């Protein structure tokens, strides 16, 4: 039976995906930042699906210590993790508009929450995923991608929320391609996707597509038997597409991997 951890699962795509997978009988680990919203999410999913195999985990992904505690708790409480869906993220705008924000370590906030926290959490949970193989890692990225300027990754000059978001989303894809190579032969697959364009979530002001579109596209990467051996791919919805060219630059991916290891305090090699 599947056990799936979904980050950012108290609203939007994450919440809808959690309910969708719970309806199949899977055990769902719901992550978020607010206990009240977490409890409400679990109650709503249980009422809708009749599935009570639901677990709540609170962690602020801008704080690496909390990410480590999240991984420790999940590993202690579950011996089976068949999928990790890195869905939590900050959009192009936040309260304060285009003002650059940092976490407690001085790292730009979007790069931290959208990418670095997922990088750290995935590496910390790798032993559990490998032990549970076949298992899957899914990065919820975006069609909005921008190359990483390694001379100013934290965007201290000419800050743009759009640039910050788009480079963090490309970083997720670069990480995915790296993971696919590193995990080859282990039974763990890694894929990234743009779930749907401008879904009705809290980070989208003017929706274009339906939330169900994103749930379908993301859910198939978690459960579709036809994708059991598909890894190292980027999808736009359900269609495989080519990501930004920097994602295929091995030197750039190596540089990002090493930088990410330094920033999070782990060895990703």
From TrEMBL:
Pfam families: adh_short (PF00106)
Keyword Transmembrane (UniProt): no
Key word Oxidoreductase present: yes
Swiss-Prot/TrEMBL keywords: Oxidoreductase
This protein's name: SDR family NAD(P)-dependent oxidoreductase
Species assigned in the record: Actinoplanes oblitus
Lineage of source species: Bacteria, Bacillati, Actinomycetota, Actinomycetes, Micromonosporales
């Amino acid at each position: 039976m599947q056990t799936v951890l979904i980050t950012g699962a108290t609203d939007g795509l994450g919440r809808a995906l959690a309910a969708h997978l719970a309806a199949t009988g899977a055990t769902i680990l719901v992550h978020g930042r607010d206990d009240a919203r977490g409890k409400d999410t679990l109650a709503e999913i249980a009422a809708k699906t009749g599935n009570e195999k639901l677990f709540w985990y609170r962690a602020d992904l801008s704080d690496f210590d909390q990410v480590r505690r999240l991984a420790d708790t999940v590993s202690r409480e579950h011996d089976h993790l068949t999928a990790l869906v890195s869905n939590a993220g900050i959009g192009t705008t936040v309260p304060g508009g285009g003002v650059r924000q940092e976490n407690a370590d001085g790292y730009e906030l979007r790069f931290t929450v959208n990418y670095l926290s997922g990088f750290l959490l995935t590496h910390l949970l790798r032993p559990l995923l490998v032990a549970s193989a076949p298992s899957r890692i899914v990065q919820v990225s975006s069609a909005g991608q921008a190359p990483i300027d390694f001379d100013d990754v934290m965007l201290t000059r000419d800050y743009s929320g759009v640039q910050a978001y788009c480079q963090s989303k490309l970083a997720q894809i670069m990480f995915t391609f790296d993971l696919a190579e590193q995990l080859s032969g282990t039974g763990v697959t890694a894929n990234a996707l743009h779930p749907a364009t401008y879904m009705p979530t809290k980070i989208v002001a003017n929706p274009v597509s339906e939330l169900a579109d994103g749930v379908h596209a993301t859910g198939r990467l978690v459960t579709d038997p036809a994708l059991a051996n598909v890894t190292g791919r980027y999808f736009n919805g359900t269609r495989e597409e080519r990501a930004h060219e920097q994602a295929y630059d091995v030197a750039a991916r190596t540089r990002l991997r090493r930088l990410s290891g330094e920033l999070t305090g782990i060895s990703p090699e």
